[in-house]
Amino acid sequence: MKALIIGASGGIGSALADRLAASGTEVDRLSRSDGTIDLEDEASIAAAADRLKPAGPYALIICATGVLHGDGLAPERGLRDLDAARLTRSFAVNAIGPAIVMRHFLPLLPSNERGVFAALSARVGSIGDNRLGGWYGYRSSKAALNQFVRTAAVELARTRPKAICVALHPGTVDTAMSKPFQRGVA
């Protein structure tokens, strides 16, 4: 089996890539930190897909990317904290980037065999499960990601009927992204 992890330098992405490799899966890894892909640059995404096309098809493609805080970003507690530039960055990384990844990488799934594309989302992106409010940019961008994935799954079913396209909620995990928000989490 061949797998591709996009976001392979992050906590979840690196753990998934390592676990897959340990099981004997051939794993290709892409990340912003090693300069192989930048979710805020479509040309970078397209170039990465073109570079990996000869290595495909991939039975598993995981987009393990996202941003919640850092570089001027922080979860908003209320409307008074909304800022257009920070919202734009949140949507660029959490929703638009993965959507463009789907555009360029879904064609690398097998044509006539089972293939899986998974994007890491978050439970806080659920509209119906929002009981606490706040975190406007992250919640909204993950809700948008969920809709992108659902819409791509409908289209993918027509062109690759054995393929699966899903959004996954990993829960609160012990990574740098989640560390400031682990209070009360086992």
Structure, explained:
With 186 residues, the chain is α/β, with parallel strands linked by helices. It has helices spanning 11-22, 42-52, 84-105, 136-159; strands at residues 2-6, 26-30, 60-63, 115-120, 163-168. Strands 2-1-3-4-5 form a 5-stranded parallel β-sheet, sandwiched between helices. The longest helix is centred in the C-terminal third of the chain and has 24 residues, at 136-159. The N and C termini lie far apart (34 Å). The relative contact order is 0.16.
Could you give a short account of the major beta sheet? 5 strands, parallel
Series of H and E elements? EHEHEHEHE
Globally, the shape reads globular
Low-confidence stretches: none
Query: What is the rounded Rg?
Result: 16 Å
SS-based class: alpha/beta
Distance between the termini: 34 Å
What percentage of the residues does DSSP assign to strands (E)? 5-15%
Q: Care to count the β-strands? A: 5
Look at the structure and give the mean pLDDT. 91
Kindly report the spatial arrangement of strands forming the biggest sheet. 2-1-3-4-5
What is the number of helices? 4
Percentage of residues in helical conformation: 25-40%
